[in-house]
Amino acid sequence: MRPFIAGNWKMNHTPSSGKKFAEELVPRIKSLGADIVIFPPFVAIPSLYEVTKGTSLKIGAQDFYWEEKGAFTGEISAEMLKEAGAEYAIIGHSERRNIFGESDELVNLKLKTAVDSGLKPVLCIGEKLAERESGRTKDKIKFQLDAGLSGVSTEKVIIAYEPIWAIGTGKTATPQQAEEIHCFISEYLDERVKILYGGSVKPANAYQLMTQSHIDGVLVGGASLKIDSFYDIIRNGIKAFEEKN
Ligand code: PEP
Fold it and tell me: What mean pLDDT do residues 102-117 have?
């Protein structure tokens, strides 16, 4: 098994700075044993695709709308993203849920559209600090899995466990905390789905996290914006996987 290492750029990098990043990263990761995906802003997808087409660096979208086309001002469809070069899509990131009010029903519609259209979905789930502190982490995870995956075959879905209290805060879940929830998710789904951890992953903690047996990779926000830190996370992930395989 290879680690799956993804960078979520959020609202960072322009088409030109993103392209420059990809031009530098592609030769560095050429013969590495990892699946590597970058999720740039929509407008940077074509320029990244131009330099990554046919290479081992894959591109994804941070979101999309579930309808095929029509009067949905400001939205973008799965087909449009695929044509622009996206192979993956993040669905239900906590920032979409909490800042933009995305419901579990909407997340589910997006998952169905992704699977039907051939965009590989990365479903984000995770608990808030108050839910963890009151012992409701597993209930929340169960709820988000049931609601998000209702009517969807999990075969093609990647799950990203991202405790909200660890996103962009510098507070990472300990490898044991993350492993416990990853184990729970994989038992609950009763299938060997890929499960990524996300939440303040950095070069310094990536190795320990990825040595855990149920952590299949990482979804990285802030530390994916600079090429050296993203590259170090990739190398640390590969090292961890070589040791645990
Ligand atoms: C994310 O937004 O998916 C994320 C994990 O961010 P960060 O690594 O910055 O906590």
Answer: 97
Our mutation pick for probing the ligand 1 site, out of 63, 91, 96, 162, counting the most ligand atoms within 8 A of Cβ, is 162
Residue 82 Cα distances to 22, 45, 61, 185, 217, angstroms: 18, 10, 9, 29, 24
197 CA to centre of ligand 1 in angstroms: 10
Distance 201 CA to ligand 1 centre (A): 7
pTM of the model: 0.97
Confidence of residue 245 (pLDDT cuts 50, 70, 90): confident
First vs last C-alpha separation in the chain: 7
Residue 215 has pLDDT above 90, yes or no: yes
* Ligand 1 proximity of 57 Cβ (cutoff 6 Å): no
**CATH code matching the domain that covers 4-244, chosen among 3.20.20.70, 3.30.390.50, 3.40.50.2300, 2.30.130.10:** 3.20.20.70
Question: Measured in angstroms, how far is the CA atom of residue 125 from the centroid of ligand 1?
Answer: 12
Per-residue tokens: 215: 């952590």
Domain parsing of the chain, residue ranges: 4-244
